[in-house]
Amino acid sequence: MKDICYIAAFPKSGITYLNFMLFHILFDRPQDAARIDSDYIYDLHESLSRVPPPGEAPRYVKIHFPYSNGLPLRQRASRAVYLLRDPIDVMMSVWDFKHLLGEDGLLDATQGDEAAKFQLFCKHWVATGGMMNPWMGSWKANVSSWLDQRELPVLFVAYERLKARPFEELRRILQFLGRDASDQAVNAAVEAGKPDNMRKVESAEIEKGLSGVFYRPALARGYSRGYRFVGRMHGGSSDKVLTPDARQQANQVFGPLMERASALAAGAAPRAPAAIRSPMFPPPHAPAAAAARKSAAPATVASTTSDIYCTYFDHNYLSRAVVMIESLRRFDSRTPIHVLALSDLCVKILQELALPNVKIIPLAVLEEAYPELAAVKPTRKLIEYYFTLSPFLPHYLFASTKADRITYIDADLWFFSPPQAVLDSLGDASVAITPHRFSFAYRNHTIFGLYNVAWISYRRCPEGLDCLNAYKADCLAWCHDRLEDGRFGDQKYLDTWPARYPGLKVITHKGVNLAVWNVHGHVIRLKDNVVTVDSDPLVFYHFSGTQMLPGGGVQVPTEPGGSSRSTAVLLEHVINPYRRRLDDEHRVLEQRFPVLAAAASEIRYSGGLLGAAAPRKAVF
């Protein structure tokens, strides 16, 4: 079902302005303006979990990623609107937004320090082609990817023309979408989108202190200093802020691409692949066609994917898991993720969220496949029983799919770069495990295990299956959240694996499983907007022990020590972005599913182990 249209743009190109007006035309529910990104024009980066399953109704998805075949929801996409803005005006909007975020110490910088930072920022922007962060690519790479692709029809819209002639440009967009609207509706949307009117909406959100289309509580400090999301609507910045030499360099970097893109955005017909002949959405009353499509759908078959991921969690860990899956999908939209849902409420909510390419396995299904679990379940605390299941989930998947390799991942990870490089490095390894790499401050924590269960890969081969079978027997026999006879939960069993299984590989990539217990043993830097760990790109950070605070907000465990420079990079580019994202997702899920707020967790680690920061899945 091709029911999705991407509304795409490089960040800070005016996409919120465009979507604000489209919302008023397409949905005409001004009372729901605060929910534009979560329920109407779905923000793929924050609300991927809220996109409904495929259907006859058209869906609109906001996206900042460069184009690729691996885009989330790509198989459902029929076309895209791409909003283009002058890259130096984008640069200035990014600079303003960095103040609202409180990045680079800008909120506390002196006037002289800020001026020096601005010079460096401008030089870096032009030299890198407009690099903001690696997920979105540079401005040049992002725009080029949408210009060069030939798989989706794309309507290019110039932000400058949209500001100058909003009525005409909205009409052009509506025609492309196959939607109609009265002149009165379009004019009302134009009025709603005027900067002063959007600022009134933002001011109301700030006064209420609730997340909306503009306001985010996590940015309260920037708001308190007078910075706003609805900015100064920069225009003509190249002449205003760049020296003649810098302007010449910017023209060399951005000019050819701007000319090419501007020609397409100057009212020309959208460029469409030759193979596309059908409209984006089926007519509203076409039962025969719908039935034909349904009957032609391929039969469901067992997975034949070479790699699959699996994880498990209950409803108390749902927001962390959704954020983890979302981050993984930035870099890999195709590899299936099999989720063992550990509570009925978790099953129900996951079914409603319908996350793309996520397969749900209710706990009852696993327990039916392994009746031996019934004998140990009453003898263990809930968290101990969950840990007992660690080997059973991949064992079940080897029996029920045709996967060559299964990688278990914890639900409290956050991905920063593609994990495929790690998978490729494993070669034919029968098993792959991740060392803790304890820093000096955590040198005594080896008693909890040399390896961490955050990432374990098993291959379908005799040694890999032998390892998994032995692990399953071990966890069935004993799995408790205490140290006893050289055992600890499901984790310390891994200590003996390297000696027992010659085909096992210990993952040495420093960017894998960075966490509070090892971060101060590494040099953390930002290079070309990529966080590096001893020169390796950060693949994922393990946010073990992160707590959702009762009154709202997120507490992430941190440890004093390490260099101030490494700590600054870690806080600004790893910890704080995760804290903001998790807080937003938690609020969204509780608003959509109020029962979550009342479903208190029954799981607690014993005080001694939690106090010692035993590195495992600290709290569900």
Largest sheet, order of strands side by side?
10-9-8-11-14-13-17
Strand % is 15-25%
The largest sheet is: 7 strands, mixed
Through-space gap between termini: 36 Å
Shape: globular
The CATH homologous superfamily of the largest domain is termed Spore Coat Polysaccharide Biosynthesis Protein SpsA, Chain A
- CATH architecture label of the largest domain: Alpha-Beta Complex
How many E strands? 24
Which structural class should the secondary elements be placed in?
alpha/beta
Number of domains: 2
Number of helical runs? 26
What is the averaged pLDDT score? 85
Low-confidence stretches: 274-305, 602-614, 616-620
Q: Would you tell me which CATH topology of the largest domain applies? A: Spore Coat Polysaccharide Biosynthesis Protein SpsA, Chain A
Q: Helical proportion?
A: 40-55%
Instruction: Kindly provide the radius of gyration, computed on alpha-carbon positions and rounded to a whole number of angstroms.
Output: 25 Å
Question: What CATH first level of the largest domain would be assigned?
Answer: Alpha Beta
Structure in words:
There is one protein chain. It is built from 26 helices and 24 strands. Helix 1 packs antiparallel against helix 9 (183-192), helix 6 (139-148) runs parallel beside helix 13 and helix 15 (318-331) packs across helix 24. The strands form 7 sheets. The protein has a 7-stranded mixed beta sheet, sandwiched between helices. A 5-stranded parallel beta sheet has the order 2-3-1-4-7, with helices on both faces. Strands 12-22-18 form a 3-stranded mixed beta sheet. Helix content is 42%, strand content 16%. By secondary structure, the chain is of the alpha/beta class. The protein has 2 domains: 4-265, P-loop containing nucleotide triphosphate hydrolases (Rossmann fold, 3-Layer(aba) Sandwich), CATH 3.40.50; 307-611, Spore Coat Polysaccharide Biosynthesis Protein SpsA, Chain A (Alpha-Beta Complex).
